[in-house]
Amino acid sequence: MTARFALLSTSDKRGLPELGRVLATAGFTLLSTGGTARVLREAGLEILDVSSYTGAPEMMDGRVKTLHPKVHGGILGDRDRHAAQAADLDIPWIDVVVVNLYPFEEVTSRGASLSEAVETIDIGGPTMVRAAAKNHAHVTVVVDPDDYERVGAAIGAGGADDALRRELAVKAFRHTAHYDTVITAWLAAYDDGQDV
Fold it and tell me: Do 7 and 31 meet the contact criterion of CB atoms below 8 Å apart?
């Protein structure tokens, strides 16, 4: 059987260990980074760090962790058209992507300097979410912990069907669109001398 991979990288850790257990039981290797990996390990799950998977360390104070061809090729590749190329490049498929984004809105609503706000702009997360949502014919993308239970049930029963993957993709694109809208509005309104 071909190895199956799920990538988990979340700010909101609600329900994460339970979903991780479902994925592990279904035979997925769990890829993760930072705090998400720590929470999953503390729950007794075996985790493969993304840096070990890609062979590239996290760098630039964590700004670059998942921006790597082995991650995005594994998410974006068409399972039929790109299978030979993925095999040649040693890129396994990543079939489940569980990501929620840095809490920009929460941080800026409490008051934040420009530098604090900029550090809370997620780059890798939205990139993975959009990649997985684009390739929803093959990938299940989950951005909302409230969906973990039903996604877990679907995976436990053999996998999410086309309709569920498409519904989750729409939710994912809506999530990243809202995120970008909030960032745009905050930055446009920011004035070094005033509260935003």
Answer: yes
Token pair belonging to 92: 């396994």
What is the identity of the amino acid at 10? T
In tens, the pLDDT along 17-73 reads 999 999 999 999 999 988 899 999 999 999 998 888 876 667 666 667 667 778 888
C-beta of residue 135 within 8 angstroms of C-beta of residue 86: no
CB contact at 8 A, 5 and 97: no
Residues 93, 133: Cα–Cα separation, whole Å: 15
Tell me which CATH homologous superfamily contains domain 4-189: Methylglyoxal synthase-like domain (3.40.50.1380)
pTM of the model: 0.89
Q: What is the pLDDT of residues 106-137, one digit of tens each?
A: 778 788 788 888 888 888 889 999 999 999 99
**How many of the other CB atoms lie within 10 Å of CB of 89?**
13
Structure tokens at 25: 């039981």
Domain-by-domain residue ranges, the chain?
4-189
Cα separation, 2 vs 21, in Å, equals 20
| Rounded to 5°, angle at Cα 58 from 184 and 25 | 95
